[in-house]
Design goal:
With 73 residues, this protein is an alpha+beta fold. Helix content is 36%, strand content 26%.
């Protein structure tokens, strides 16, 4: 199961992206990310900013994109 790096990390991402997605709670933001991971097309890539290996999940039907690290965070 995928987990957030920390509760602070989840809260920061929610503040940054949640309002643009029309989501009004951490729980809704978390559920959206998990749904994108479950339904989305999965692909791997190297993050140019951090140099870390990432796994992207894109759900074409919702237009949502979620990123996880190679250790499922």
């Amino acid at each position: 199961m995928h987990e957030w790096q920390s509760p602070k990390y989840l809260a920061a991402h929610f503040r940054k992206h949640g309002w643009r997605m029309g989501l009004h709670s951490l729980e809704a933001y978390d559920a959206s990310a998990r749904a994108t991971i479950e339904r989305g097309t999965v692909f791997g890539y190297d993050d140019d900013d951090t140099g870390e290996r990432r796994v992207g999940c894109y759900d074409r039907s919702s237009g949502r994109f979620t990123i996880v690290s190679d250790d499922d965070r």
